[in-house]
C-alpha cells in the first residue's frame, strides 16, 4: 500500500545529480572486488581496476599499448575491443587488470601519453554500493539504503505510516469535509463522495478492534511464511459483495482486455465471487505462477520508497482488511476490495508485471526527488492509467477498476485525457479526495514500459541494478566481475534462442 507524501516530504537528499560526461579523466566508481561493507575499504593491496582507452586503428597500436602493462608488471585479467562510438577511425579497448596502487598509477600516466583514456574504474576508494550481506548496512555517500534480497523486505514492510492507534488522526470522523485531513491522510485511493456525509467507521469500536487484528497479522509476517488465512465476518463479505456487483456491471465496457482475460482465471483458481473474499495466500500462489509476483500483507501505508522497493522484487504489499460497511462504495484508504479487484488481475499479466517491476528497480537507491517522480508516474499509470484498445479507451489503473464512480467518469468523455509522457506526467498533481484533473493514456503496456525505461535513464543514479530471478536478489553492477557474470547469463540465453531457431528452421528447409 503506497502513500504519496505531499511535496516530496521524504527528505531532501539528492544523491548524485551532477552526472559527469566521459572525458580523458578518471571517473571514480571504486570497482574493488575485495571491498567489504558499505563505506568500509578492504585491506587487500592487490585489487582489480578497469581501464577503457581509445587507439587509432593502425597496425601495431594495440601491441604497443599492451607492452606498457607488461613493463609495469600489471596483470591483465580480461581484454576486449570494439569500434569506437566517437570516431570511425578509432577503436576502444576494455581491460580488466590486477596490480598494486603505485604500479597502476604509473601505468595510467604512461598510457595517457600513447592513448586517450576514456574511463578508469580504480581501486583507490570503496564504493558505497559494495556487496553487503547485512540488511541493516548504513547509508553512505548520500545513497539511501535499499533491500538487496527479497528477505530484506522484512525491514521495510513494518515501516508503516499509519497503524493501530493512529486511526483517529488519519481518518475523517466528523461532519467536516474530508479534505481537511489531507495533510495527514496521505492517501492515493478515493471514491468520490458527498463531503457532508460523516464516516462513522473509525468511531466504531468493534471495527477498530478488527482493524487492529489485521494490522497485527501483517506486522508479524516474515518472508517465506504462508500468509495467514482470514475468517471474514458475514458483514465483511456483504460489503465485499456490494463492491463486487457494482464493479462487475462496468468491467465488460470499461476494463482493458488483459483485465478481462485474467478475471475469470481468478474466479476459477482463487474463488473470486460476490459471496467470498479470496485469501491472499491463494492469490499469491496464483500470481507466482502467472507472472512471478507474490503478495505480502501490510499493516498500513508505506512510504513511496518502501512500496516501490517491493515491486523491484515482484512483491506487492497488500492489505487484508475490508472497508466499513456503512459506506461500501467509499473508502478513505485502499482495502482488500481495492487490492484484489483493482490490482491483482493486472499483476497476473506478464507485460504489466514487468512494467511494475521496472518502476520498482528504478527506485532502488535513487534520490528522494527521483523516487517522488517515479511514484507519481506509478500513480498515473498503475493506479489511474488508461490505454487504447480497438480504437477505444479502456482502464487498466487499479484506482479506476476498484471505484465505480471514477471508472465511469474517466471514460465519460468529460475527463481530461492526455498522452502518457513520464517527463510531463511526473509533474502532475495527484488529487486526493476528488477525481483526477487529468488521466494519461498509453497505446499499450509496451509503449508505457519503453517510455518509463527512457525516463528512468534521466534520473541519475551512480550505479545500475539487475534483478536475479534465481536468487530473488538485486545485483548492483559496480564492477566488471558482476557485469561479466551477467553477460555470460545473457550469452547462455541467446544460445538457447539460437538453438530453438535452428530447430524451427530445419523443417522449413525440407
Automatic annotation (TrEMBL):
Statement: the UniProt record of this protein carries the keyword DNA-binding: no
Entry superkingdom: Eukaryota
Residue numbers binding L-tryptophan: 301, 323, 331, 402, 432
MF term (GO), any: tryptophan 5-monooxygenase activity
Reactions performed catalytically: (6R)-L-erythro-5,6,7,8-tetrahydrobiopterin + L-tryptophan + O2 = 5-hydroxy-L-tryptophan + (4aS,6R)-4a-hydroxy-L-erythro-5,6,7,8-tetrahydrobiopterin
GO BP: serotonin biosynthetic process from tryptophan
Region named Disordered: 1-42
ACT domain sequence ranges: 50-123
Pfam family, one: Biopterin_H
TM region(s), chain numbering: none
Protein name: tryptophan 5-monooxygenase
Organism: Oryzias latipes
Top-level taxonomy: Eukaryota, Metazoa, Chordata, Craniata, Vertebrata
Amino acid at each position: 500500500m503506497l502513500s504519496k507524501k505531499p511535496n516530496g516530504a521524504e527528505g531532501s537528499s539528492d544523491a548524485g545529480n551532477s552526472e559527469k560526461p566521459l572525458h580523458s579523466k578518471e571517473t571514480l566508481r571504486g570497482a574493488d572486488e575485495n571491498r567489504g561493507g558499505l563505506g568500509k575499504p578492504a585491506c587487500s593491496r592487490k585489487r582489480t581496476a578497469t581501464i577503457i582507452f581509445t587507439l587509432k586503428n593502425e597496425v601495431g597500436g594495440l601491441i604497443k599499448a599492451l607492452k606498457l602493462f607488461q613493463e609495469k608488471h600489471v596483470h591483465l585479467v580480461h581484454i576486449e575491443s570494439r569500434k569506437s562510438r566517437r570516431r570511425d577511425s578509432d577503436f576502444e579497448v576494455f581491460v580488466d587488470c590486477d596490480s598494486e596502487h603505485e604500479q597502476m598509477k604509473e601505468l595510467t600516466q604512461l598510457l595517457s601519453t600513447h592513448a586517450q583514456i576514456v574511463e578508469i574504474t580504480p581501486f583507490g576508494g570503496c564504493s558505497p554500493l559494495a556487496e553487503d550481506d547485512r540488511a541493516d548496512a548504513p547509508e553512505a555517500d548520500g545513497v539511501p539504503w535499499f533491500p538487496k534480497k527479497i528477505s530484506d523486505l522484512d525491514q521495510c514492510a513494518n515501516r508503516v505510516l499509519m497503524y493501530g492507534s493512529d486511526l483517529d488522526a488519519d481518518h475523517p470522523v466528523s461532519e467536516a469535509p474530508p479534505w481537511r485531513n489531507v495533510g495527514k491522510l496521505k492517501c492515493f485511493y478515493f471514491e468520490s463522495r458527498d463531503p457532508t456525509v460523516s464516516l462513522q467507521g473509525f468511531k466504531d469500536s468493534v471495527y477498530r478492534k478488527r482493524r487492529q487484528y489485521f494490522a497485527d497479522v501483517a506486522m508479524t509476517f516474515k518472508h517465506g511464511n504462508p500468509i495467514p488465512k482470514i475468517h471474514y465476518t458475514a458483514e465483511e463479505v456483504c460489503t465485499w459483495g456490494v463492491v463486487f456487483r457494482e464493479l462487475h456491471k462496468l468491467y465488460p465496457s470499461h476494463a482493458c482486455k488483459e483485465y478481462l482475460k485474467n478475471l475469470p482465471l481468478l474466479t476459477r483458481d482463487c474463488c473470486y465471487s460476490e459471496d467470498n473474499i479470496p485469501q491472499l495466500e491463494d492469490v499469491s500462489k496464483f500470481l507466482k505462477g502467472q507472472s512471478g509476483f507474490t503478495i505480502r500483507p501490510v499493516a498500513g501505508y508505506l512510504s513511496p520508497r518502501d512500496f516501490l522497493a517491493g515491486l523491484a522484487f515482484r512483491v506487492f504489499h497488500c492489505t487484508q482488511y475490508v472497508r466499513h460497511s456503512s459506506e461500501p462504495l467509499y473508502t478513505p484508504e485502499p482495502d482488500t476490495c481495492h487490492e484484489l479487484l483493482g490490482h491483482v488481475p493486472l499483476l497476473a499479466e506478464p507485460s504489466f508485471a514487468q512494467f511494475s517491476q521496472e518502476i520498482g528497480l528504478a527506485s532502488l537507491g535513487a534520490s528522494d526527488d527521483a523516487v517522488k517522480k517515479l511514484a507519481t508516474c506509478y500513480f498515473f499509470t498503475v493506479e489511474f492509467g488508461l490505454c487504447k484498445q480497438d480504437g477505444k479507451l479502456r482502464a487498466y489503473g487499479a484506482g479506476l477498476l476498484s471505484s465505480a464512480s471514477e471508472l465511469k467518469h474517466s471514460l465519460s468523455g468529460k475527463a481530461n485525457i492526455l498522452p502518457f509522457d513520464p517527463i510531463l506526467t511526473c509533474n502532475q498533481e495527484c488529487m486526493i479526495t476528488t477525481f483526477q484533473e487529468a488521466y494519461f493514456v498509453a497505446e499499450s503496456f509496451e509503449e508505457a514500459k519503453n517510455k518509463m525505461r527512457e525516463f528512468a535513464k534521466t534520473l541519475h543514479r551512480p550505479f545500475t541494478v539487475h534483478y536475479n530471478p534465481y536468487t530473488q536478489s538485486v545485483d548492483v553492477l559496480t564492477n566488471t566481475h558482476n557485469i561479466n557474470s551477467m553477460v555470460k547469463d545473457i550469452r547462455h540465453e541467446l544460445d538457447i534462442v539460437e538453438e530453438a531457431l535452428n530447430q524451427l528452421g530445419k523443417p522449413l528447409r525440407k
